[in-house]
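Usage

Read records sequentially. Each one opens with the input sequence:
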Amino acid sequence: MLRDHDDLRLSPYTGWTRAHWAAIADRILLAARRHGSPGHARVSFPGRPGGYGPDVDGLEGFARTLLAAGFRVAGEGGADPLGLMEWYAEGLATGTDPHSPERWVRLDEHGQAKVEAASIALVLHLTRPWLWDRLKPVVQEQIIDYLAPAIGSDYPPINWVWFQIVVEQFLASVGGPFSREDIAAGLALSDGFVREDGWYADGAERAYDHYTGWALHFYPLLWTEMAEGEPEAEARRPVYLERLRRYLHDAVHLVGADGSPLVQGRSLTYRFAAAAQFWAGARAGLTTPAPGLLRRAASGILRHFTEHGAPDEDGLLTLGWHGPWRPIAQSYSGPGSPYWAAKGLFGLALPADHPVWTAVEEPLPVETADYNLVLRAPGWLVSGTRDDGVVRVTNHGTDHSLPGSNLTDSPLYARLGYSTATSPVLAGEHAGHPLDQSVVLLDEQGVPSHRTGFETLLLDRFDTGTVAGASRWRAHWVEPDAGLPDHGSGRAGEVRLGPWVHVLSVVRGPWEVRLVRVGDATGRLRVGGWPLPATTPELRQGVHSWVGGGEGLESHGTTSAENATPLAPWTLVPWCATTSPAQPDRWYETVIYLAGRPHEGRPPTITWHTPETTEPATTATDPAATDPAATDPAATDPAATDPTATEPAATGAEPPYPAVARPFARVTWPDGAADVIDVRPLLTPS
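and closes with the structure output:
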């Protein structure tokens, strides 16, 4: 049925138009009705209850599908052939009636209600002429009373601050109680999330994930619409616009040609909510990235999921990524949780004649050319290859933690690599014991160490286009506290510290050269590669990977894990390792490959040189070695250089580097390019 709407003239890459989006939204909404309570206040989808219980599940189902209904009607200027506003109006009246058996959990009864209240307030704002203005005064008063506990309440200092701001701004707009102090405090707190190049962290930690787009960029500009005319909103709007513009330059580089978002970070079951950031840019009137590119990214994401079974044959969104896969859930997830995906339908709030719907689709960056980028805020080296449409991230900056924390590694945040074609191992033995995309020491029992709490040492781009990053950490083993809830980040517990580990990644196209140095080693060293989706323990599907170990890494193999990721029944992880305890202060060499076809010819080679036997290095210590592919004069920041770089003294004398016999690593790539890296700055004590 969706194919009937294809328009390859308007959308030469996806074929998708606004009609496709409307058809998906209507299917989801009509399917949700079948699970509504008699008074429409709760939408309780099938499946076992979430960690917060069925009352919260029913509220989530209502509030999150209300987002889709609100966007659908707002974009049609109030036209509502499905009677969406009438259906949800009854639910609003029932859910906010304190005497109804279907009444909602209140904001002062359960924290999750604060999340859902923001969706309700947002839709009431967007559809005001067709929903709020048509409610009976008694229902309006009930809604105000339901939302009022947001005032003066405590909200976690993460993206949740926007839930309070949105709710109280709506209350202000309808003559209800609100606190200017709350709004001002929330705005000030959100300013503390700002990072380089338009990025936001989700709080004080190095928490970079899809919440940057579907929450931390989504709400600020909508709040300025809600507060239109207020001096604070008018002053902030251009600032928010510029941050979003700069961030979207990076975001479009993180979408695979097949439409897959990066499989990284918590709440992945929200699926195509990852498209919300692109619609936010379109609604804000951004022309860079162009409207045709924004729609290409968004439509690619939604098409990716619909072609992989989400929504399912019954029109439902289950806990999973493509199809149902319960292990993807965090402890807060229930059967209504996946419907935050409705945020990805935000484009439907824009009318059919909006430029984002009328512009011809433009190709994604990964469909245009190969690229290697440095994203400084999250500490990512990004490699996209046109031949296979795969986007890869090498991670030296994100762990949802702080330096020195020594937590367990969350597979969603602390792995060394993520991509649009693979998923980190999220279930089974190797979810908690790092294997894929890892550098670990194995203790006497063969238990691998963790890296969370690492220090970022380097993020740079060379004149050749190659990118490099490095980090170091104390290898540590943790006996986690089993009583802590799973919110997707690492866990605390009893810690046993090991030696320092330094890792340098040099990335070009599908290749990563990974150099590892261990301090006073206490166990075998193991380096894990990409986790490949596989149909059977022997038969991979889709992409190809390879791990090559240099001298000292003579042991190698491939570990198969069943039901370990949402992408396939099996996952294959290639690795290499030492056969005895790693030698201290020695650089171990590995070459790691991920692409749509097997590698042919010679892989990258590494040779080591003295200062006298190599040409001057294009090193990471050069403050001019910034990322030309991401050049953006309006976003230039003098602080956007490597803060750990060591510059020579003004006299020309070399800095006090540690003694290294052959400190220059020369990497020669299959395409003939070569890079020379001075490793001594990475070893300088902090």
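Summary fields computed downstream for this record:
- The longest strand covers residues 493-508.
- The radius of gyration is 26 Å.
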